[in-house]
Amino acid sequence: MYKLIIKINVVGKLGRVWIAYMPTQLVWDKRFFVVFGQNASRCSKQVASPKSHGGEKLIRCLVIGSACSHSHPLPYLEKKKVYFLARSISLLSSLSFPLALSSPTNHLYSLAAMSIFEYNGSALVAMVGKNCFAIASDRRLGVQLQTVATDFQRVFKIHDRLYIGLSGLATDAQTMYQKLVFRHKLYQLREERDMKPQTFASLVSALLYEKRFGPFFCQPVIAGLGDNDEPFICTMDCLGAKELAKDFVVSGTASESLYGACESMYKPDMEPEELFETISQALLSSVDRDCLSGWGGYVLLVYAALLTPTEVQEKILKGRMD
Amino acid sequence: MGRMTELPTKGGFSFDLCTRNDMLLKNGLQMPPFRKTGTTIVGLVFQDGVVLGADTRATEGPIVADKNFEKIHFMAPNIYCCGAGTAADTEAVTDMVSSQLQLHRYATGRESRVVTALTLLKSHLFSYQGHVSAALVLGGFDVTGPHLHTVYPHGSTDTLPFATMGSGSLAAMSVFESKYREGLTREEGIELVAEAICAGIFNDLGSGSNVDVCVITEGKTEYLRNYQLPNPRTYISSKGYTFVKGQTEVLSTKITSIQPKVEAVEGGDAMEE
């Protein structure tokens, strides 16, 4: 990942400071600026170079954002090295964010005041149609602003007619999934049948509430076919407060956009093909407005027809890869 | 090594992720906002019983997570409880006390009393010193008559003829203070409760959507879900969005058919003697 180095070369009253990190908030002062990484060449750069007034030295500000920021040409760059003018080292301590100065391992949380849910990024939505339901997710796995995988699985199967999508911190999502599969298998052994979606929702809620004061940072979206092929969807916050909806449920970092898109695009009693188009368009348009999720889409649609056997369709969507 | 298998736990809270979460917080990551019920919840005593009322908005930070959330929870056939605060806490606490009341009814063979529910709630909340963030309005009708109580997250309780809780409590209390009197009839009671909730809905940002009302009298309880819908959705285009089939670009498709399972019939043939 990113190495954090501080190399100070004092030239007279000014120093050359190199600091490496990946910020999500940009802080700059007239006198000194921060940041860019040793891996700067791999990041897009945004440069602002205000000229100061009253005879102060020209100061350059280099701000590195994520892959979603703009890049401007840097005429004064020499071999991808950028150097800054800083008054003194003591000014660094007055930076308004904590700097991790030392080891390469300390790159993870050092400077971002991010929410834990924004660490990996996710987008999940489930919708109900006529005798069918669809659950869709994005496919990006990131570590703050860097993308690590573009085929990450967020929707998991519990049994043939019940699926759970888990957004939030990826490690907690995977742990939750493993615990749930374990509990479901025990249930299958005892009861000799699959769990109903309503029962499963209560199980997930209980498991999450058990950790009330040290919660799992994941928000599940549960979708399944209950008795008489009645579709069932439900979401919860990270403490297990259930929201049983009759139309759609959303979760993840893109949830605000998803709420808006689903409110407008959803219609009751949609047929499977129309439901697939609606949920895909809602997902793709919402993740366009979220930096942390996207990079393709995955839609799973379960359709219970009267005479034909129940059908499960899994589709990978082509989306913007930025 | 610790235990490799994880047995289903015996109940109560488990604190094993707390050290990890503390470490995350120290390293600068913020805790996520929990789903709260911003809320206006009210109750009043009228001549024949108790009327409870609640709005139906559930919020997650500034976003509305659920537009039609049920805040009036069942405790016993003659006791209902409205909950404000963290949604998971109100649901879990009311579910738990409801189960305890059911067991108590089986043990004693009598109808539950409101003070029983009250004591169970307040002792649970007090033992968690306010960290279980549930503010409740508990009302019911038992052999001793109608009762209305409020329970605060730290475990204190009040017994009142009319009560309001939640972020919209001031708006609702203003309506009660001006218009409440002893000996209201059923219709007047419901009318007053609906007016108080509407005051909360329209003046408090944490409350919104619809009005739920629950009327508890001797031997009879009526839960009027969505009694008033003062905020209908009128802005939807009747045509809606129509997407042409094939509009979304698909990279790959996989279709599986689910084979119907043969169900084992419960209570099949009796064993032969």
From TrEMBL, chain A:
It is found in: Nucleus. Pfam families: Proteasome. Gene3D superfamilies: Glutamine Phosphoribosylpyrophosphate, subunit 1, domain 1 (3.60.20.10). GO terms for cellular component: cytoplasm; nucleus; proteasome core complex, beta-subunit complex. Its main location: nucleus. GO terms for biological process: proteasome-mediated ubiquitin-dependent protein catabolic process. Keywords: Cytoplasm, Nucleus, Proteasome. Non-catalytic component of the proteasome, a multicatalytic proteinase complex which is characterized by its ability to cleave peptides with Arg, Phe, Tyr, Leu, and Glu adjacent to the leaving group at neutral or slightly basic pH. The proteasome has an ATP-dependent proteolytic activity. The 26S proteasome consists of a 20S proteasome core and two 19S regulatory subunits. The 20S proteasome core is composed of 28 subunits that are arranged in four stacked rings, resulting in a barrel-shaped structure. The two end rings are each formed by seven alpha subunits, and the two central rings are each formed by seven beta subunits. The catalytic chamber with the active sites is on the inside of the barrel. PANTHER family: METALLOPROTEASE TLDD, PROTEASOME SUBUNIT BETA TYPE-3. This is Proteasome subunit beta type. The lineage of its organism: Eukaryota, Viridiplantae, Streptophyta, Embryophyta, Tracheophyta.
TrEMBL record, chain B:
Keywords: Cytoplasm, Hydrolase, Nucleus, Protease, Proteasome, Threonine protease. It catalyses: Cleavage of peptide bonds with very broad specificity. The keyword Nucleus applies. It comes from the Eukaryota. Pfam families: Proteasome. InterPro entries: Ntn_hydrolases_N, Pept_T1A_subB, Proteasome_bsu_CS, Proteasome_sua/b, Proteasome_suB-type. GO terms for molecular function: threonine-type endopeptidase activity. The keyword Hydrolase applies. The active site is at T39 (nucleophile). Its main location: cytoplasm. It is found in: Cytoplasm; Nucleus. GO terms for biological process: proteolysis involved in protein catabolic process. One of its GO terms (cellular component) is cytoplasm. Component of the proteasome, a multicatalytic proteinase complex which is characterized by its ability to cleave peptides with Arg, Phe, Tyr, Leu, and Glu adjacent to the leaving group at neutral or slightly basic pH. The proteasome has an ATP-dependent proteolytic activity. The proteasome is a multicatalytic proteinase complex which is characterized by its ability to cleave peptides with Arg, Phe, Tyr, Leu, and Glu adjacent to the leaving group at neutral or slightly basic pH. The proteasome has an ATP-dependent proteolytic activity. Component of the 20S core complex of the 26S proteasome. The 26S proteasome is composed of a core protease (CP), known as the 20S proteasome, capped at one or both ends by the 19S regulatory particle (RP/PA700). The 20S proteasome core is composed of 28 subunits that are arranged in four stacked rings, resulting in a barrel-shaped structure. The two end rings are each formed by seven alpha subunits, and the two central rings are each formed by seven beta subunits. The catalytic chamber with the active sites is on the inside of the barrel. The 26S proteasome consists of a 20S proteasome core and two 19S regulatory subunits. The 20S proteasome core is composed of 28 subunits that are arranged in four stacked rings, resulting in a barrel-shaped structure. The two end rings are each formed by seven alpha subunits, and the two central rings are each formed by seven beta subunits. The catalytic chamber with the active sites is on the inside of the barrel. Belongs to the peptidase T1B family. PANTHER family: METALLOPROTEASE TLDD, PROTEASOME SUBUNIT BETA TYPE-7. This is Proteasome subunit beta. It comes from Rhynchospora pubera.
